[in-house]
Amino acid sequence: MANVSDITVSAAINSLSALLFLLAFAIFRLQPMNDRVYFPKWYLKGIREAPSTSGPLVKKFVNLDFRMYLRFLNWVPAALKMPEPELIDHAGLDSAVYIRIYLLGLKIFVPIAILAFGVLLPVNYTGKNFKIMSVSMKDLAFGEIDKFSISNVEPASKRLAAHIVMAYVFTFWTCYVLYKEYKHVTDMRLHFLASQVRRPDQFTVLVRNVPADPDESVSEHVEHFFRVNHPDQYLVHKVVYNANKLAKMVDQKKDLKNRLIYYSNKFERRPDKRPTTKAGFWGLWGKKLDAIHYYTEEIEKLSKEEIVERERVINDPKAVVPAAFVSFRSRWGAAICAQTQQTKNPTRWITMWAPEPRDVYWNNLSIPFLELNVRKLIMGVAFFGLIFCYLFPIAFVQTLANIESIEKVLPFLKPLINRGSVKSFIQGFLPGIVLKIFLLILPMILMEMAKIEGHIAVSILEAKSAGKYHIFLLVNVFLGSIVTGTALQQLKQFLDQSASEIPKTVGLAIPMKATFFITYIMVDGWAGVAAEIFRLVPLVIYHLKNVFLVKTEKDREEAMDPGSLAWPITEPRLQLYFLLGLVYSTVTPLLLPFIIIFFAFAYLVFRHQVINVYNQKYESAASFWPDVHRRILIGLIISQFTLLGLLSTKKAANSTPFLLVLPVLTVWFYKFCKNRFESAFRKFPLQDAMIKDTLERATEPQLDLKSYLKDAYMHPIFKGGEVELMDFDEDDDDFHIVATKRASRRGSQAGTTDCSPDHRNTGFNAV
Amino acid sequence: MANVSDITVSAAINSLSALLFLLAFAIFRLQPMNDRVYFPKWYLKGIREAPSTSGPLVKKFVNLDFRMYLRFLNWVPAALKMPEPELIDHAGLDSAVYIRIYLLGLKIFVPIAILAFGVLLPVNYTGKNFKIMSVSMKDLAFGEIDKFSISNVEPASKRLAAHIVMAYVFTFWTCYVLYKEYKHVTDMRLHFLASQVRRPDQFTVLVRNVPADPDESVSEHVEHFFRVNHPDQYLVHKVVYNANKLAKMVDQKKDLKNRLIYYSNKFERRPDKRPTTKAGFWGLWGKKLDAIHYYTEEIEKLSKEEIVERERVINDPKAVVPAAFVSFRSRWGAAICAQTQQTKNPTRWITMWAPEPRDVYWNNLSIPFLELNVRKLIMGVAFFGLIFCYLFPIAFVQTLANIESIEKVLPFLKPLINRGSVKSFIQGFLPGIVLKIFLLILPMILMEMAKIEGHIAVSILEAKSAGKYHIFLLVNVFLGSIVTGTALQQLKQFLDQSASEIPKTVGLAIPMKATFFITYIMVDGWAGVAAEIFRLVPLVIYHLKNVFLVKTEKDREEAMDPGSLAWPITEPRLQLYFLLGLVYSTVTPLLLPFIIIFFAFAYLVFRHQVINVYNQKYESAASFWPDVHRRILIGLIISQFTLLGLLSTKKAANSTPFLLVLPVLTVWFYKFCKNRFESAFRKFPLQDAMIKDTLERATEPQLDLKSYLKDAYMHPIFKGGEVELMDFDEDDDDFHIVATKRASRRGSQAGTTDCSPDHRNTGFNAV
């Protein structure tokens, strides 16, 4: 059990490391050569140019204006300055709503903390439990922090009423804030959707599982079906090609090109020595070759193959998958088709809103119904295995990383391994490192699982993998920290305990783990967030690329990696803080300030990142909010049950009925909010569609919708090898100097991938 | 523990009582005077007349044709003769599918029984557990039946593998049969819907929670909204009036009329003595009055009040509730409106398919959104209380029925009560009777709860109360029989046990309760079903009415009470047999023949009843099937867990993983079926709507849909005091002699309730 001084030391260390990151960031971001690492968003929007190149060469890389260093913290007011509507314009609604989650944390926990400090701290501190305990149980060391926690209240004390009342107050307050926030986000979303400019996905529905027809091609079948069943509304459709092989070729070519550029640069710098490479795998072994010549040839060969494959995809009817994007004459028509069932058999002609073009996950569009069900079953079982046996894969890797097995497989390493220091490294650190690596790649594993499950949009994939990650963190980090041991052992322990014992076990462990979680918040929450703003990995990669690959301004642009809000990772982690805050609000209120500092600091940092760094992969108009809402409520319910268990260990069993009311009310509140708000996130109301349609018809009577929609849902591979980005703020140029116009940039980008205009416009218009 | 001879005795008694019921039925049904009790369905359809009245008077009441008595069992082939398509025509799809549930029981359990008898019985019987047990545990008496059950297999025996394999086989067989049945019922439903003649509900959508508008009436608001948002489809609408008070008046008048008829009949029979009544409550006390004069006056007074109230409802804008039935030009338009969301706020303009007119539950149409949520919460809590404290209300009534309290309230009864026989009756039987009465009125309580929950159609009300009854039976009858004590005690017991202990407790008790359940099946399943066909209560009531109220043929028709398939009661009870069969299939296969006899017998009886007796209250086109399917699967999962628990008491813990696979697969199968079939029961596909619309437009181009739909959704109170019945087989007259045409019957019915044609056609056409 840690005491106050332990916590102080830990707080000092973590604050210091956070400060160091911030300081490093403050210095690094002022250097012109890092400009593309710390402000990529502005470059992407085309409203920031490379820093001026006049003056001495050194100025190009290092900022010598020392006055600027004095204002090294001025990113904070800058991050706060941009008002929310402008932020939505600038970075999209998803990002704006995402950073509101941190604000929501503050709204929930600041009043709770004030109340808890005002009411519960004195009640706890004046308790006499430890005086009694210290006599009877000398071996159990209680820390000083526990004096402020519920542990210090003696069993069956009347004081516990204060905790119960506070549990009610906190629950109502949390629900009230959540309700208001849900309402606000719903309004924001509806307003955002209503004020959106015309977008292809507003008119388009994705239809899957088109049944095979012996007489007609998929394209004809789709057209006839919708012409008949949506007679006045059907406009045009686009079939989906299975271009996975082609996509692979394009990737391969890109890779080869990078190598070619690398060697060309090398040659340019040292024209006396012609660079060489090896023919084998990754250029590691095989015959020595002239690199430039070799890669030029390889690229040419691949280009030819690509053209053949491209022709095949376009002309082979088997390359058409039984899915299509069907566009309608009006938003009203699309809203109808997306929300209704088309045929008797619900496994055919499945319609849903088309995701926006850059959000489509093309590989999964053709999975048949039964297979989809089998995949979900298998992934469900695999996920269960992953959670409850999550040490199994690690154990497997660790056995491989074991000294004996290494010696067995690679006997020549034996003398090296048997050296003391190496041995202790392998035995002491390797298992820990393997665990760490596994936890790092876990989100990737979950994402792959979501892909196998067969979802058809990146946003859905992210939402699903976020859901899985949330459960994983809940079971393996929260429960796992409280009840030590692997999840499987915990499960066994819980199964062997009676149902009424489980909350007791957890309730007993909760107050004792407060100091552990405080440390966790400081390490993961404070220092981790500060590391996020420093962006060490992108910084290093950018400079490496800059040295080896970049030749032109365009290359530099490609070397820039803005990253994005890693939603499926950050949101579930964030939920852990809500959970901890709610659980400890009645138990150990001392934890709350740490949570509040985390939320405030993270709010600043992510607001800065969203404004200056992250690039948006897609825009879902905050469709993730119901998930956020639900998960916070899950945290709330867990907190209610832990308090219930804790009080039952305090011989306050007669309080159980009072506390059982809370989860019932919370579940009811959840259902109420679901009925009240969720449909705004899942459906598109006809009235709004009609209003937009009518308005558009009045203002743009000459609009040629057909040609507007014609190429919107083309496989990105046919568009020039990259997903075309469609931003919503085309004429937002009241900032910095606008030099390169987006259109011209696009053109040059497309040109790089050798996709001749002929290919980009042939044969893809099914109607 | 019962032995084989006990069971034999019980079987003999129950078979005998069943046979007696059947015999009584066979004799009674041949008497002409009981014709309307045993064949009301044919009268309702207008294809059976009262038996011929020629010949001696006695022939009118008693059947003297003794040859007919010889063929007293000929109802059985008659019940089986009618082929299914004709049955659907005759009694509706709901009834036809309902009796298929019994057939489904046979399909599942006959092969299971054969396999279980072939494989498990020998395995069990040759087990040696009791030889071992009888040495060590002499006090525990095992019956002979247990020799054939899994109890006779010694712990950790290899023989248990047979049970596990059989559990797999039974699960797969059950799922296979269920899948085929679901598919078949889906096809039947789709075919039924496709071949249905034009019905108002195909074109109509119910819209609720119409928001208040300061400038417009509800009717105008509805019209404008749908004219704008469904421009080409909107046809006409009908607002809903709050006519609850008026309905009460009509009921009251009907009651008074019955009294008037009673006294008139009395006077006719004995013209010398003018009948009198008393003015007070129910004519029990108060001033003596001339009965005929008094009731004629009362009826006149009420008629005047009714006219005033009728005027008020029609003219008072406050009598209009914010709901309306909106009809569209085509089924396509209605399908679209029913399945889409209309506005941003999902709590307003809620649209759903209109129930068919006779299915509407008018009282609940005006409940606002928030109230609906609160009602559901309260009813949820109340239902939880009802299940787990279901002895509380009984305890309360029983205290009232207690000797001391009776003596306190009614002291003059003291001498009577203190007599020995009366005392012992009150103490010995009253509690049991109170419990029995409570169980009898339970479905009514559940129905009232469903009404309070606010569902808007009778079919939904019945489905919801059936769901509640199913849970009640599961917890209080099945679990309650296994783990004795009230549900609340059980819950406490389960909570205090560890999660892994619960299946063990149940598993241990299951084989011991086999004889109890066998007796239960014979009492409730055999004798109970035979009692159903005899219809004692309707028989008595009909003859009472016949004597006191009936004057004309029309009165006799009204006295007839065909009853209906009491879906919310019979279906959950039926599920208990599936559950028992599945649970005992691997444990005590000897129980299976009893189940099979029940299913076969009940199939015969209910087929007969559906053909000859029951009147259909509404037609839902088998929309209850997903519930039936789900509940059988719940039974299957329970059976898997009990076997799991049972085997864990047999020291066969290593079989747990094998058996855990089964529930996972079953849940997956449930989800698969839900995705595959359920939407056919919940939605109406656009393609089918379009086909029907197109066909109709081609065959009946002159159809005036507007006038067809105008009065379909009028509150029944404005239609002549009764819900108008709309059958689907208007021209089905190839059976018996058709004498009274339905149309003329209708007219005379409507005339009886004093509803002048003026009222029936004024002011109700909102458009």
From TrEMBL, chains A, B:
Keywords: Calcium, Ion channel, Ion transport, Membrane, Transmembrane, Transmembrane helix, Transport. The keyword Calcium applies. Residues 7-181 form the CSC1/OSCA1-like N-terminal transmembrane domain. Residues 202-364 form the CSC1/OSCA1-like cytosolic domain. It is a multi-pass membrane protein. Residues 746-755 have a biased composition (Polar residues). GO terms for cellular component: plasma membrane. Residues 375-647 form the CSC1/OSCA1-like 7TM region domain. Pfam families: PHM7_cyt, RSN1_7TM, RSN1_TM. InterPro entries: Csc1-like, CSC1/OSCA1-like_7TM, CSC1/OSCA1-like_cyt, CSC1/OSCA1-like_N. Its main location: membrane. The chain crosses the membrane at residues 12-30, 101-123, 160-179, 377-401, 425-446, 467-488, 576-606, 632-649, 655-673. It is found in: Membrane. It comes from the Eukaryota. Residues 746-767 are annotated as: Disordered. GO terms for molecular function: calcium-activated cation channel activity. PANTHER family: ERD (EARLY-RESPONSIVE TO DEHYDRATION STRESS) FAMILY PROTEIN-RELATED (PTHR13018:SF124), PROBABLE MEMBRANE PROTEIN DUF221-RELATED (PTHR13018). Belongs to the CSC1 (TC 1.A.17) family. This is ERD (Early-responsive to dehydration stress) family protein. It comes from Artemisia annua.
